[in-house]
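Ex. 9. Protein: NAD(P)/FAD-dependent oxidoreductase.
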Amino acid sequence: MAEAFDALIVGGGAAGLMCALTAGRRGRRVLVVEHANRVGKKILMSGGGRCNFTNLGAGPDNYLSANPHYCKSALARYTPWDFVAMVERHRIAYHEKELGQLFCDESSKLIVRMLLEECAAAGVRIEVGCGVERVRHGPGGFHLDTARGVFSAPALVVATGGLSIPSMGATGFGYDIARQFGLNVLPTRAGLVPLTLSGKHAERFHDLSGVAFPVEARCNGQSFRNRMLITHRGVSGPAILQISSYWQPGDDLRLDLLPAVDAFDWLRQQQAARPAAELKTVLADALPRRFAQRLCEVWLPNRPMRQFREAELRGIAAQLADWPLVASGTEGYRTAEVTLGGVDTDELSSSTMMARRVPGLFFIGEVVDVTGWLGGYNFQWAWASGHAAGEAL
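Predicted structure tokens for NAD(P)/FAD-dependent oxidoreductase:
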């Protein structure tokens, strides 16, 4: 005999918990089933354990989707300030780090505890270590066959996340459910992920691992100005993670190595002020010394500044401002923060997150083809989409 609820939520992450507490507050009997041994694992690890729980500037332009308009409704109806109000109500201290990013002063555990307290107050039941063996749809609505028995409800919310970080239990189960009910799933790939280098490109960088500095990364009409980190396998850092979501193998990727200055004007000033200094010495004032030396060993001529003609300085400046980075691939889902692609938004209502052709079936959070930038945007999508579905249950 199945145990009956008003709504079943598969997945106890950010989106699932937000959906549960929203529906629970409205008097719905809600069950959250989570296959891992605890809820909110991605919340706990995020932001170095401090949880970058939202971004004050979150808006539709900060998201990638085959339909860029889809996220507008949910984001407009549950804003970063709505989540901040809950954080403040629970007396969780937080700070703005940079670019609108809000972090806990203490631990991300406080965000999970807050969500669990809200769920408890709303009468939500949560079952952890409860894998779903089968999803059925028939008389009485949706039925979940689980390790803890059979649960049924007229509404089923899929909040299973994407494929990112499989070591934390990520699977493609949500996509399988979508396909089971005839919904289109767009191709997925790793997003917010380090890029790898190979061949001579890797050889030129392999001994510079750990070197980091500000760049502006540009690809396919998008640009991000932030830090780049050279790693054993390639490049990472916020600027690279951001642009990785817009890059695919073969795409042209460029870096401005001196994003804060006009490279030509700066080189001319250096030439006038330090005519005897070599180019590598001058560049080491604006770039990490080891990287500046490598530039002059491989790509740029190194000689005293007085020996460069204006045309040569212009050429060097052009290279510094538009430096090609030839990446071979990404580190994949193992280290990716998010999954691009997923359940096609054309299949879902933008106001409720419900499947248009399957009444009672909802998809929220990362499993949907909406992917945010680095910096709290993906959590805000989780809160907003979870809230939208919770209001509709």
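Check your answer against this statement. DSSP finds 13 helices and 23 strands in the chain.
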